[in-house]
Amino acid sequence: MKTYIKVALFVVVFIALSGILAALYMFNMKHADMSKAKPDFVISATLLQKEFEADETAASAKYVNKIIEVTGILASVKQSESNILSISLATESELSSVICTLTDLSDPSAFKAGEEITLRGECSGFLMDVLLNNCKVINKP
User: Fold this and answer.
1) In this structure, are 123 and 86 located in the same domain?
2) Which 3 state secondary structure label does DSSP give 87?
3) Which of 17, 21, 52, 98 is most buried as measured by Cβ atoms within 10 A of its Cβ?
4) 35 within domain boundaries
């Protein structure tokens, strides 16, 4: 085989292996511990939802992939089949709320609708509801 073909083949294999290793690293990376993480923003559920509703582009630029500590009135709690708990915080909008997903709690009966709760999580955007992932309960009466 000619030298330039060997070099090109080596470069292609090196790039492929680097990509595979980077993908494995990202896949296995642990989420930040939200109970110890410093929030980028502390805001009420109503104000957060209003900001996204008023200007989704600006709010996305401000909040997406940031750690947000949000306080609101618990509207509902749902548990999926994979033990992921979704807590919905009420806002002034009837069509939209703030939905926080918790992966480490498995007892939805610990939460009661109507109580005030503070959660910290990473904002992932707005799809009719503001979505916070990897949340931790910070304050619960």
Assistant:
1) yes
2) strand
3) 98
4) no
Could you give the number of structural domains in the chain? 2
Residue 141 has pLDDT above 60, yes or no: no
pLDDT of residue 44: 93
- Are 14 and 55 in a shared domain? no
What's the predicted TM-score (pTM) here?
Answer: 0.72
Q: Look at the block and give the residue holding tokens 């294999």.
A: 13
Instruction: Give CA–CA dist 109/124, Å, rounded.
Output: 26
**Whole domain around residue 22: which residue ranges?**
1-30
Task: Answer whether 89's CB lies under 8 Å from 111's CB.
Answer: no
**Distance between CA atoms of 104 and 84, rounded to whole angstroms?**
8
Coil vs helix vs strand at 22:
helix
pLDDT in tens, 77-99: 888 777 788 999 999 888 889 99
**Residue 31, pLDDT score:** 62
